[in-house]
Structure to design on (438 residues):
């Protein structure tokens, strides 16, 4: 049986992985939750622009890291090589419990939210929440099977889903702006309403949720061992994918505000379906909700694909459970795929959508900061094989903004944030136990 991953992925597939990972549950679920925090559609749009700038800064920094360390594992490899194995382990530990399993759960729940929205009122089941969870679990099992049986078939499915995703979003944007019944008045908010309940802490929480929506700008670094010409293709895919997604995110949020009065948008999870309802009618609401459900399939697929590469890399270094290092007959880390999907199913069975994204967003924000600090270490030691533009300003801005967002988000949601920190601390004794065992 093979023990090494093979280099098969080129620029097109890698860019699709970035786009597929980034455009997921976040953009189609969080804007309503964000507006409930901000009460101001213009501030909402400004924060999406800031989020895109932060993501691009991160993508440029990770391009340099990915070119220097073209191996499977992403943050795990960067931190283990640049700092200490413990730092790498903790990032991978969080990736397993939060970084990938929780987004798989969140995206699958979002898929079920939109799919159920396509049903006529009379066809809705009595236990709606249970039905949504069953649908979410079923879709995880389907993609687990697809990616378990090979990289080529999995990447082919991913490419098809991403192309469909781009086409469907473009259709939604075009028909919405050209034929939809929206209003520019929705961008105007009374000053009293704008300021009511909006604090720096709520802005910080909003930015953390936005960065959840932008997560994936570093996706191809997790596939480093399977990338053809990584010094060229990793940076190109990260930058192209991030710029493309930022442009689409801004257009989608403008469409949401154009379609829905801010008061009606607040707190709504299936915001895309509500926007379609307002722009057209109930029939097209169902039609576009089906569109968005199909779009979310690409995000679920790519998360099921890339996360197990982290656990594979950790296990090969003796920093994770040894079975995760096993490559199956289809040349993929099959056991790691099964482990991640099993944990995602547990999240679906036990949590709500908002709890899951708050928990995972805080955890996802910590280790990229350390990784980008590693860029400074590479430059100081003159070991960087690829020097990306914007240094040192863009990496420094990424670090500063990310730290401020985490602090403000912690103050706004201390319980979920504390659980994330506790999970990281718990990983320290686990690391030393694994070291003794393996």
């Amino acid at each position: 049986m093979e023990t090494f991953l093979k280099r098969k992925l080129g620029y097109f597939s890698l860019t699709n992985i970035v786009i597929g990972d980034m455009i997921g549950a976040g953009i189609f679920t969080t804007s309503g939750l964000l507006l409930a925090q901000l009460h101001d559609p213009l501030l909402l749009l400004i924060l999406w622009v800031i989020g895109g700038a932060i993501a691009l800064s991160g993508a440029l920094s990770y391009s340099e890291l990915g070119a220097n360390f073209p191996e499977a594992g992403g943050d795990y490899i960067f931190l283990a090589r640049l700092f200490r194995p413990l730092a790498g382990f903790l990032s991978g530990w969080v990736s397993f419990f939060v970084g990938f399993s929780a987004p798989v759960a969140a995206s699958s729940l979002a898929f079920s939210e939109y799919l159920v929205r396509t049903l006529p009122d009379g066809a809705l089941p009595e236990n709606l929440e249970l039905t949504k969870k069953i649908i979410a679990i079923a879709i995880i099992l389907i993609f687990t099977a697809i990616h378990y049986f090979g990289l080529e078939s999995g990447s082919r499915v991913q490419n098809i889903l991403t192309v469909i995703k781009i086409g469907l979003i473009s259709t939604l944007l075009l028909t919405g702006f050209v034929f939809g019944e929206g209003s520019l008045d929705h961008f105007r908010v009374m000053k009293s309403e704008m300021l009511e309940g909006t604090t720096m802490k709520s802005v910080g929480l909003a930015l953390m949720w936005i960065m959840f929506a932008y997560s994936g700008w570093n996706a191809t670094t997790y596939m480093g061992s399977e990338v053809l010409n990584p010094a060229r293709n990793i940076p190109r895919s990260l930058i192209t994918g991030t710029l493309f997604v930022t442009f689409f995110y801004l257009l989608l949020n403008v469409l949401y505000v154009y379609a829905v009065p801010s008061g009606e948008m607040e707190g709504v999870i299936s915001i895309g379906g509500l926007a379609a309802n307002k722009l057209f009618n109930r029939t097209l609401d169902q039609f576009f909700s089906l569109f968005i459900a199909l779009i979310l399939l690409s995000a679920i697929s790519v998360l099921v694909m890339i996360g197990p590469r982290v656990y594979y890399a950790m296990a090969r270094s003796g920093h994770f459970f040894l079975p995760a290092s096993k490559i199956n007959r289809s040349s993929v880390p099959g056991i790691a795929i099964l482990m991640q999907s099993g944990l995602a199913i547990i999240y679906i069975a036990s949590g709500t959508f908002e709890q899951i994204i708050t928990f995972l967003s805080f955890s996802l924000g910590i280790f990229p900061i350390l990784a980008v600090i590693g860029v400074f270490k590479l430059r100081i030691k003159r070991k960087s094989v690829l020097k990306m533009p914007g240094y040192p300003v863009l990496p420094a801005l990424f670090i500063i903004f990310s730290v401020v967002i985490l602090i403000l988000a912690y103050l706004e949601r201390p319980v979920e944030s504390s659980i994330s920190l506790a999970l990281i601390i718990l990983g320290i004794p686990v690391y030393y136990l694994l070291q003794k065992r393996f």
User: Anything to note?
Assistant: The longest helix spans residues 282-316. The chain has a mean pLDDT of 85.
